[in-house]
Amino acid sequence: MKKIAVLTSGGDSPGMNAAVRAVVRKGIYEGVEVHGVYQGYQGLVNDNIKKLELGDVGDIIQRGGTKLYSARCPEFIEPEVRKKAVENLQKRGIDSLVVIGGDGSYRGAQRLNEEGIKTMGVPGTIDNDINGTDYTIGFDTALNTIIDAVDRIRDTATSHERTFIVEVMGRDAGDLALWAGVAGGAETILIPESHSDIKEVAERIETGMKRGKKHSIIIVAEGVMTAAQCAVELRKYINIDTRESVLGHMQRGGKPTGSDRVLASRLGAYAVELLLNDVRGHAVGIENNRLTKTSFDRVFEESHRIDEGLFRLSKELSI
Ligand code: ATP
């Protein structure tokens, strides 16, 4: 009987559980034995692997986080460490592995694929920074969490006539900041993919204030600078009283939205389908609402790009 394994790795994201469930259920549906690796690559090295049954993934589709736990395992870049991981899978007769995680996790999967294990990547990260897919699992949930927070902040910003600076996650990517900024009606969005002139931002705030604008929301992606740094920079040009809000890890938690659950279900099942058809060394994704696969090489070929049209629109709508 064919045996495959599944793990979650890197930063957790809402919907990872739904993806694990899809891998396990699709596998069993196709007559495959599915094993869960606990604590990502760390668990693979430590032999923390358990056969999963249908019931093991029951009652998790609606839960945030990951039942398989996630971990960072920096030593996985060492070939001898990965050799141990490969041995742990092979001694059980497992020849395929689904890796649910971000681009760092994909690099580990790419190495394993070269070293004897057939691997398939599933994009699980709130950052939406992976090539070969329009959306990553967890992005929609995190986006909605941020929007909810920004709406609340806007209430108090209006009452106290203040400028709020909201720092959001995204590592080196600005998708969360851009989408949340557009959806939350932010006056200014600072993203790493585009250089922002703080003097210009300050001038815009000043012009708004002169026009009678009472409050302002600035969304800054963590990849640009912290909210506190942003406040310091702004005060070099205008005398304003700002409040800073760092949303932090709350952005990674919470129950996944319907979109994330459906995306995770589709991508998890598709990863299994591809492995059963002897496709390996690829990542699954969704592009224009169609399931796609992209080789790891191509995923890493270019750096992530922002939706330029949406960024332009955000500026047009925040005049
Ligand atoms: P996120 O961006 O959401 O945090 P990620 O998957 O990019 O997710 P990383 O911490 O970058 O998170 O990577 C997760 C794990 O993948 C690392 O802890 C390490 O075990 C493995 N990994 C990362 N880069 C490599 C590499 N070059 N070679 C082998 N393994 C790697």
Structural summary, described in words:
The protein is an alpha/beta fold and about 325 residues long. The protein folds into two domains: about 5-140 and about 255-300, Rossmann fold (3-Layer(aba) Sandwich); about 140-255, Phosphofructokinase domain (Rossmann fold). It has eleven helices and eleven strands. It has helices at about 15-30, 40-45, 80-90, 105-115, 140-160, 175-185, 200-210, 225-235, 260-275, 295-300, 310-315; strands spanning about 5-10, 35, 50, 95-100, 120-125, 165-170, 190, 215-220, 240-245, 280-285, 290-295. The strands form two sheets. A seven-stranded mixed sheet has the order 3-2-1-4-5-10-11, with helices on both faces. The chain has a four-stranded parallel sheet with strand order 7-8-6-9, sandwiched between helices. α4 links the parallel β4 (about 95-100) and β5 (about 120-125). α6 (about 175-185) runs parallel beside α11 (about 310-315). It is elongated. The termini are far apart.
The proportion of strand residues reads: 15-25%
Whole-number total of structural domains:
2
- Count of DSSP-assigned helices: 11
User: What shape does the CA trace take?
Assistant: elongated
H/E series: EHEHEHEHEHEHEHEHEHEEHH
Distance between the termini: 62 Å
- Give the assembly state of these chains: single chain
Fold-level CATH name of the largest domain: Rossmann fold
Q: What value does the Rg take, in angstroms?
A: 21 Å
